[in-house]
Design brief:
By secondary structure, this protein is mainly alpha-helical. It has one domain. The chain is built from four helices and no strands. It is elongated, with a radius of gyration of 19 Å. The termini are far apart.
């Protein structure tokens, strides 16, 4: 994950959800805020609010060009 400046905020959440996130963070040896940030990003991605990176789109375009015939055959 890239390092960036963090912003503090205050909110409320179900204690069971928070405890589970803390357990996940502990089990993975990560900080709670990193797990929470991942959860936020997953939610935004699910909602279509996060565009794929330019690097990913470049590789996707190259793949389409390189394997166009294969993809067309598989689509049949």
């Amino acid at each position: 994950m890239r390092t960036s400046q963090l912003s503090k905020f205050s909110s409320q959440a179900n204690p069971e959800v928070l405890n589970t996130l803390r357990e996940i963070a502990g089990a993975e040896g990560r900080k709670f805020h990193a797990v929470l940030d991942e959860a936020f990003r997953d939610y935004l991605s699910k909602k279509g609010a996060v565009a794929p990176s330019q690097k990913v789109m470049t590789h996707f375009a190259q793949s389409l060009h390189e394997f166009e015939t294969l993809y067309q055959a598989l689509a049949k």
